[in-house]
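SAMPLE LOG
Freezer: B-3
Tube label: C17
Construct: single chain, 223 aa
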Amino acid sequence: MGSKNKLKRFRENETFSNVIQPVRDKVLSEGFPLKGKWGTDFFKNSNPVVLELGCGKGEYAVSLARKYPDKNFIGVDIKGARFWRGARTALEENLGNVAFLRTQIELIDLFFESNEVSEIWITFPDPQIKYKRTKHRLTNTDFLSRYQKILKKDGVIHLKTDSEFMHGYTLGLLHGLGHEICYAHHDVYRNEYSPEEVTGIQTFYEKQYLEQQKPITYIKFRL
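STRUCTURE (predicted):
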């Protein structure tokens, strides 16, 4: 994507009512005004809040918002030029139950109160295979503890990935920490019992992976 295109998208994001772009330093020093108040102050309802972390173009958040009008969805990503597409689609379709938050995921517990989030989707994250990059792996122990802070007691996390490494790493970690694994499969499109929300929604990259006959893995778990 050219720099002109990126700038145009950044400018458009600033006009979108469903995009929140907080200033990092201000959040660190003053806190975030919507923390604990997403339902009452932003969505104006008491419906469950669901996050898509590393949402990219926001395809999953938007598709889930269409499918579940009685839930609120928030796509989280630091790359605003990517989620511009999802934000624009949501506005065009008058989907009032989806928003986009531009921030780094390692700060996630600064934006949500404890017990505020019902579900988290992590869709096709970078597996960060090199050892030096493990601190950026979205299912490492540090991230899991941050998710645990904001999730409701019975809240669930969904991990959908094309990376066998990420799937195996996460399963091993969850087993080792004694967390509850509700469902896991190494190839969801070859399993008739896979949840419809897992196989019924496909991102742009996922379609490419499927064309390359790469298996798509999935884990649903509770902390």
